[in-house]
Write a structure and sequence with these properties.
This protein has 15 helices and 21 strands. By secondary structure, it is α/β, with parallel strands linked by helices. It folds into three domains: 72 residues, Udp-n-acetylmuramoylalanyl-d-glutamate--2,6- Diaminopimelate Ligase, Chain: A, domain 1 (3-Layer(aba) Sandwich); 209 residues, UDP-N-acetylmuramoyl-L-alanine:D-glutamate ligase (3-Layer(aba) Sandwich); 128 residues, Protein-Tyrosine Phosphatase, Chain A.
């Protein structure tokens, strides 16, 4: 049946899974979740202009409609359809994963590669078992190269996504402490991220290696790849500088004499490896240094990742609150404490999915604040509250973001450098209007 479904897909205007975003002549796939069943909306989707639909329930109202394909499982069909489409693509596909920096690296890479190629990249955060198939199905004949972001919170997930996406190139940004609960600890994270390089090893593809990350180097053992980092032995070597609070990267390709300077619109030296990854991959694919510089320097984050906002109250906000784990939290705290021109306030939300490591890791955050001499901190969430008595009495603890917001509205902050960092569930961005 996949051949017939694929033929319908080729005739359609693209995949739809949300009735709020229907496409005329689209192929509607009736996915299910804990709180929804899109089979309920198939008839209305067709009435509103979709050309075809995939369902996994044999309802009376579906019978006899040649536009409807009945399958055993709509999600599995989506994944099979994506794999079928991928097998017909003849372009380089870069598989991208890592504990931190995936999305920023993807956007930087898209900005640089697009200076020379028609490049497709995963949109937003569509990097899971649904998002990766949807991304693959958006790649069409006009695209010359693609970047597919792969996220995971347990072992075997990257392996599964790679088998669908069949990347010809692999890039792991870094391997740190993320989703410890689902992966089963730090070794589980290592094994899970390594699955991308293992796939590339089996399929004889190529990889890009962050030489500044020991675990990435270990994951790449036995593979030949293109290296980058601060180490002068790398194929692409760089140095991080700070300029007016923003990252500037100076880089050079091995055996070339001229160093290239790129001013970025990113804050934090922790973005150095993300920028170097984009430089390395783009250069590998023949993009000139001048075009790489144009692409990276014009990229401006607007997704709560390394975003700088200057408020009307004189505050400089470092907004990095799309998500958080112990590795990214440490990098953000160390960065905001460097050479402050204003008093520093750290507004931190709890880190989710840490399992039994939660108390230890949240305690380390408070210890790091002390170590970095950050005297002002607003700490939001139960995991911080459980350990609040042991640390700086000037720190303020809140159960929820709502509590912190109420406090800010009656105790305004002016002329400070403020870091907002926390897991997605905490929604620290809600505090921005009050800062």
């Amino acid at each position: 049946m996949i051949q017939s479904i694929y033929a319908a897909f080729r005739k359609s205007s693209g995949i739809c899974t949300d009735t709020r975003k229907l496409k005329q002549n689209g192929l509607f796939i009736a996915l299910k979740g804990p709180n929804f069943n899109a089979n309920d909306y198939v008839v209305s989707a067709l009435q509103e202009g979709c050309g075809f639909a995939i369902v996994d329930e044999g309802r009376t109202e579906f019978k006899g409609d040649q536009r409807i394909f009945l399958v055993k499982d709509a999600l599995l069909c989506l994944q099979e359809l994506a794999a079928h489409h991928r097998a017909r693509l003849k372009i380089p596909i870069i598989g991208l994963t890592g504990s931190n920096g995936k999305t920023t690296t993807k956007e930087l890479l898209l900005a640089a590669l697009s200076q020379q190629y028609s490049c497709y990249a995963t949109k937003g955060n569509l990097n899971n078992h649904i998002g990766v198939p949807l991304s693959l199905l958006e790649i069409d004949s006009k695209h010359e190269i693609a970047i597919i972001e792969m996220g995971a919170n347990h072992q075997k997930e990257i392996k599964f996504l790679a088998e669908i996406a069949q990347p010809t190139y692999g890039l792991i940004t870094n391997i740190g402490k993320a989703h410890l609960e689902g992966f089963g600890g730090e070794m589980g994270v290592f094994k899970g991220k390594k699955e991308l390089f293992d796939f590339i090893r089996e399929t004889k593809g190529s990889i890009f290696i962050n030489q500044d990350d020991e675990k990435v180097v270990q994951a790449a053992s036995g593979l030949v790849g293109t290296t980058y980092g601060a180490d002068s032995s790398s194929d692409y070597t760089g140095i991080a500088h700070s300029k007016n609070g923003f990252l500037m990267v100076e880089w050079v390709k091995k055996n070339q004499k001229e160093n290239i300077l790129i001013d970025t619109q990113l804050t934090g030296t922790y973005n150095f490896s993300n920028v170097m990854a984009a430089i390395t991959v783009s250069s590998y694919f023949g993009v000139s240094a001048a075009k790489i510089k144009t692409g990276i320097s014009t990229y401006s984050p607007a997704n709560q990742r390394s975003q700088v906002i200057y408020s009307q109250k004189g505050n400089t906000l470092i907004v990095d609150c799309y998500n958080a784990n112990p590795s990214s939290m440490e990098a953000a705290i160390v960065n905001v404490s460097k050479n402050p021109t204003k008093p520093v306030l750290a507004i931190l939300g709890i880190m989710k999915e840490l399992g039994d490591s939660s108390e230890v890791e949240h305690t380390k955050v408070l210890e790091l604040l002390k170590e970095q001499s950050i005297e002002q901190a607003y700490l939001i969430g139960q995991d911080f509250q459980a350990i609040n008595s042991e640390f700086n009495p000037s720190f303020k603890f809140f159960k929820t973001t709502e509590e912190a917001l109420a406090f800010l509205e009656s105790n305004p902050i002016n002329n400070q450098k403020i870091l907002l960092k926390g897991s997605r569930a905490v929604q620290l961005e809600r505090l921005i209007p009050s800062l």
